[in-house]
Amino acid sequence: xxxxxxMLVGDFAEDYETMVPFQSLQIVGHAVHAVCPDxxxxxxxxxxxxxxxxxxxxxxxxxxxxxxxxxxxKVNPADYDALVIAGGRAPEYIRxxxxxxxxxxxxxxxxxPIAAVCHGAQVLAAAEVIKGKxxxxxxxxGPEVRAAGxxxxxxxxxxxxxxxxxxxxxxxxAHVEWMKKFLALLGTSITT
Length: 192
Known about the structure:
The protein has 192 residues and is an alpha/beta fold. Helix content is 28%, strand content 25%. The protein has a single domain, classed as Rossmann fold (3-Layer(aba) Sandwich).
């Protein structure tokens, strides 16, 4: 059964962590509305490519432009079955938006599936919805996850973890496991 999924993004969200879940979820038949605070359907965000090239942290390069297909101000979270939070640089500032926090709290309190990758955990921590949960994120976000009362899961970069209605992963190399676990929470089955 098709689900209606809300996706929170922003300028300099990670390119793969925006494009891949947005397209993958549509491929399997779900409707995905990508929104950004202060932007409307048809507006674009700029993405950033984060890569792992042997440095102490990821490198960052300019990614693609990504066109939003829904208007943030018109979002009613009750209209959606699940939430996806892209990683990258966007979470550090979209979490400052009161409506973003209210949206995340709606999904958490309604026990609806929430998928967050990489720095997306910053939004979960700011919304104060992960206390007592096992949450993965990019390692630099581990202190924020712990400060929010969650157990930071230091898992391989290509792995994901599910705890209740939360599916989290450290970065885009985990897309296969992250999306598999999220689809399972959504009740999506794929037959060949």
